[in-house]
Amino acid sequence: MALNLAAATAIVNNLTATFDASARAANPFYPEISFTRPSTRNEEKYGWVGDFPGMREWLGERKFNELRAATYTLENKHWESSMSIKKTDMEDDNMGLYPGIMQNLGAEATHHPDELFVTALENGETDLGFDGQAFFDTDHSWGSSGTQSNDLTYNASDPDAVTDTEFLAAYHQARTALLGFKGDNGKTFVRPVVRGLGNLMILVPLELEVVAHKAIQSALRGGGDTNIVLDQPQIVAIPGLTSGRKFYLSHNDSGIMRPFVFQPRQPLSRQVKGLDDIEFKEAKFMTEARYNIGYLFWFKMTLTTFT
Length: 307
Known about the structure:
The chain has five helices and eleven strands. Helix content is 26%, strand content 23%. It is globular. The protein folds into two domains: 139 residues, 2-Layer Sandwich (Major capsid protein gp5 fold), CATH 3.30.2400; 129 residues, 2-Layer Sandwich (hypothetical protein PF0899 fold). By secondary structure, the protein is α/β, with parallel strands linked by helices. InterPro entries: Phage_Mu_GpT (IPR018774).
């Protein structure tokens, strides 16, 4: 029996609609921690992230701040996901599994940048940021900032069985570090008077999820004292993190001040080919997009390793 092209087109349109709806409904994590900077070329340079002008007393001539030479380049990558749809399945009305597959494909396409984010997070102790050093490092220094570390350690009684008291102390240590980071002008990035840091987020592996919630959300300490937690950070568990001894603290301001950058070059698109081509037994469902995730401001995130 020859393929009924009109019926097959309707089937494919329904599958495409399922893909589109799933892609739109997905709720990825990366927008919460990344600044989105649309790209217009194969790669983008981030030289401007080393320049933070501030107010000064006007004595003599104006002092004009200039962008620094670019030291960090993020190249866009080309992504695709494709599948074949057997024409015989369309002829025989054997499409039972395809809607579910399309639904999953749409969600996976939207969530894929999350995978890139987790990879960047895990590689942050070796991959370089805009200052030419590892994103998480013990000796960041630029201009008049002095030496600064966003790669912290905390000495636990047992690093593989951290207590809630130890986790809370490590959190406050990381928060203090975030408050103290300075720009190349020698001034702290936070305002001179701090009422509290909003939008704090603790990223933990599954091994630390329970102790993190116990440390941050318990009303009382073990001895009955009030549990004091500054700024009440949000806790996010990330199954992809491979070390049970590490957690991350991120300060996610609105706008550009984020630790990571999402760089979209070409939005997610899809098309179907071969439906009316008698040479092939399958129709081809194809998706593609171009983007990447990279490092932005190291001083907006700390890594703490329990030792």
